[in-house]
Amino acid sequence: MNKEEVIKKWQTALHGFEQYLKIDKSLSKNSIAAYITDINVLADYMIEKHNLLPDNIDRDSLNDFFVYLSEAKQIQLISQVRYRSSINAFYKYLIYVNITDTNPLGLTESPKIGRKIPQVLSFEEIEAMENSIVVGDATKGLSVGARDVCILEFLYSCGLRVSELVNLQMENLHLEEDYIIVKGKGNKERLIPINIYAKAKFQKYIQDYRSFLRIPPQEESYVFLNQRGKHLSRMWIFNIVKKAAADAGVQKAISPHTLRHSFATHLLYGGADLPSIQAMLGHSSITTTEIYTHIDKSFLMETLQSFHPRYKISD
């Protein structure tokens, strides 16, 4: 089969895979884009190096691909694991539509990597970040600072992913009942309690910022907006968090996700049980949530001293 025919076959397979992720799996746009990007890299390599169709890829050619990722593209192990996940999903689709009956990924050896303990902020550092933002005179209106403080507080108080924050809808804020509804990965909805402090920051955001905007009809449902009345991007949120950290003198390398990690960690330190934290974070598996039990050795020692017979200190 000539190269043009191989390219066309790959394009057809990729289009079908994209529709499968969207319709059958109900994944978000960001998740779909990540899968498609990874499989496009696989397709380009297999077309250029081996002229192979998806159903002709074997263990050796796939191992060559991972060597290419590691050596030529300098892709780190953690990202190679992501590629493996994308390829696995792609072959599940190909098997589902009877394009192939085997998944060559199962014949390759998965790289072994340790779980990375996430960076966490102290409560004092989060307070300093919020206090570093200039809210401005409420009588003048359109306080960008009021918006940015509210964003930081929602990320921390509710443990939101950045994608969940930028897509948060006004209709899903039930502040009188003290909870919000968040749509997470796979369009799964979860309920998260919201505290008085976060509600106060939200009311100030509405009063001193949002109420002054001219909001296009198609943007009215989004909670957090820019000065043109359009919903914020993920990068915008990243920049807000980075600037607040720098202004507060926080030396740690952080992102919006750091506030989510801090939310979970502070709940654990406060005595919350893992299943409750799992539910509020929207983790499908409790093993993902368990990473937070490895963050502070002193917390673990306090737990052992309190509850294990061998560690209890006699009066």
What does this structure look like?
- With 315 residues, this protein is mainly alpha-helical.
- It has helices spanning 3-24, 29-50, 59-72, 77-96, 123-131, 144-158, 162-166, 196-208, 234-247, 256-269, 274-281, 286-289, 297-307, and strands at residues 173-174, 179-183, 189-193.
- The chain has a three-stranded antiparallel sheet with strand order 1-2-3, with no helix packed on it.
- The relative contact order is 0.09.
- The model has no long low-confidence stretch (mean pLDDT 87).
Radius of gyration: 24 Å
Portion of residues in helices? 40-55%
- The side-by-side strand order for the widest beta sheet comes to 1-2-3
Largest pleated sheet = 3 strands, antiparallel
Number of strand elements: 3
Envelope shape = globular
User: What series of H and E elements makes up the topology?
Assistant: HHHHHHHEEEHHHHHH
| Alpha carbon gap, first and last residue | 81 Å
- Determine the strand fraction and express it as a percent band: under 5%
Number of helices: 13
* Unreliable spans: none
The average pLDDT is 87
Oligomer: single chain
Structural class: mainly alpha
